[in-house]
Amino acid sequence: MTVTKNFSRLGDSARAVLGRAAILALWPFLVAGCVSRHSFESDIASWVGAPINQWRWHNGEPARILAKDGGHRIFVYRMKNEDCTVYWDVNENNLISSYRIEGTDCRWAPDPI
């Protein structure tokens, strides 16, 4: 009886240790994902005020260009990731005035080799 009690206590203890180890092992990946998303959004935000042609030179042509009231246009870019779209609001002077990001996989994807 005592052996069974000690074994079950050891089992709970071992499970707790393994659970903590799993959390610690996954922590860098969770943090990296958050940092990656934050870095992507910061980089995107830094383009506000820049000419859209600079973005086009770096990232190619948009998937679509939509007309908007007041001479503005929306440039729609599907990023290399599966689920990420950036919408640039471009004013009549061809300057990026604002943006919107949609998707669950918005980060900088490496170029294929």
Defining key terms:
elongated, 2 helices, 2 domains, 4 strands, 46% helix, alpha+beta, Beta-lactamase Inhibitory Protein, Chain:B, domain 1, four-stranded antiparallel sheet, 113 residues, 20% strand
Structural write-up:
The protein is of the alpha+beta class. It folds into two domains: 46 residues; 55 residues, Beta-lactamase Inhibitory Protein, Chain:B, domain 1 (2-Layer Sandwich), CATH 3.30.1450.10. Helices cover 46% and strands 20% of the residues. Strands 1-2-3-4 form a four-stranded antiparallel beta sheet, covered by helices on one side. Strand 2 and strand 3 form a beta hairpin. The chain starts with a helix and ends in an 11-residue tail after the last strand. About 6% of the residues have low confidence.
User: Taking Cα atoms only, what radius of gyration do you get, to the nearest Å?
Assistant: 24 Å
Distance between the termini: 63 Å
- Looking at the overall shape, the CATH architecture of the largest domain is 2-Layer Sandwich
CATH topology of the largest domain: Beta-lactamase Inhibitory Protein, Chain:B, domain 1
How many β strands by DSSP? 4
Shape: elongated
How many strands, what sense, and barrel or not for the largest sheet?
Answer: 4 strands, antiparallel
How many individual helices? Answer: 2
The structural class is: alpha+beta
Write down the domain tally: 2
CATH class of the largest domain: Alpha Beta
Strand order of the largest sheet: 1-2-3-4
| Low-pLDDT sequence parts | 30-36
In sequence order, what are the helices and strands, one letter per element? HHEEEE
Q: What percent of the residues sit in helical stretches (DSSP H or I)?
A: 40-55%
